[in-house]
Amino acid sequence: MTISRLLPGLILAFCCGGSFAAAPTVDAPLSELNISERGELTMSGDDFKFVPWRSDANLGKVHVIQYFGATMSDSKIFEPFTDLLQKSMEPGVIHVTTVLNLDAAMWGTTGFVISELEKNKRLHPDSTMVVDDDGTGLVEWDLGEAGSGLIITDDKGVVKYFTRKAMSEDEMAAALALIQANVKS
User: Fold this and answer.
1) How confident is residue 18, by pLDDT bands cut at 50, 70 and 90?
2) CATH of the domain at 124
3) What average pLDDT does the structure give for the chain?
4) Structural domain contains residue 93
5) For residue 15, is it within any domain?
6) How many helices (H) and strands (E) are present in the chain, helices listed first?
7) Residue range 44-55: average pLDDT?
8) Contact yes or no for 98/129 (Cβ under 8 A)
9) Regarding beta strands 34-44 and 149-153, do their DSSP bridges make them parallel or antiparallel, or are they unpaired?
10) CA 31 – CA 143 distance, rounded (Å)
11) Cβ contacts of 71 within 8 Å, gap of 6 or more
């Protein structure tokens, strides 16, 4: 192979740090997502602060990660499934992380979004809530035009389920059964 044929790939790899965005793939490790701008909302008493977050931070449990734009309509996309999880799973058996793409929020609504996130953190203190200021996850996980995704990983961080869209009743039942099977194993 000639150097002229290799050069474009080498330049692309060098410029991109050798990593390429790829959608989560079932039976493959979830590609790492690091959010250092804002990041995870933590709570101590009545005080809140943001700390950097990494997608591999909760290994050891089945992990459900939902990523969507910080808008009212986007926040509803996976709600039926997370409601089903809340009714069907004992607290602490799985870990749920919500990542909000703040870049998708309407101009001037950041304060409202953060206030709602703090309210939800009070209601669900064991859940991880993350603010992605720049839409990093949208790019890194190749979430497409809709900009949303729901990922289920096993306790080792291997993707077991991935969707970019709202789930049907059958899909929710299958995903719940998948989670239960991975919790038992």
Assistant:
1) very low
2) 3.40.30.10
3) 87
4) yes
5) no
6) 6, 7
7) 94
8) yes
9) unpaired
10) 13
11) 104, 105, 106
Eight-class DSSP state of 126: T
100 pLDDT tier (thresholds 50, 70, 90):
very high
Q: Give phi and psi for 54, each to the nearest 5.
A: -125, 145
Residues 12, 103, 98, 74, Cα dihedral to 10°: -110
Q: Looking at the 3D structure of the chain, how many domains does it have?
A: 1
Q: What length is written for the chain?
A: 185
Please indicate, yes or no, whether the overall pTM of this predicted structure exceeds 0.90.
no
Contact predicate 33/141, CB 8 Å: yes
For the stretch 168-171, contacts whose Cβ atoms lie closer than 8 Å and that sit 24 or more positions apart, written own/partner, are: none
* Separation between Cα atoms, residue 29 and residue 25, nearest integer Å: 8
Q: 158 in a domain, yes or no? A: yes
- Compute the CA torsion angle 53, 88, 151, 57 (nearest 10 deg): 20
Residue 9 lies in a domain: no
The parent domain of residue 118 ranges over 23-184
Residue that has been written with the tokens 């999880």 in this structure: 85
Integer Cα distance of 177 and 34 in angstroms: 29
Q: Is 108 left (phi over 0), alpha (psi -120 to 50) or beta?
A: left
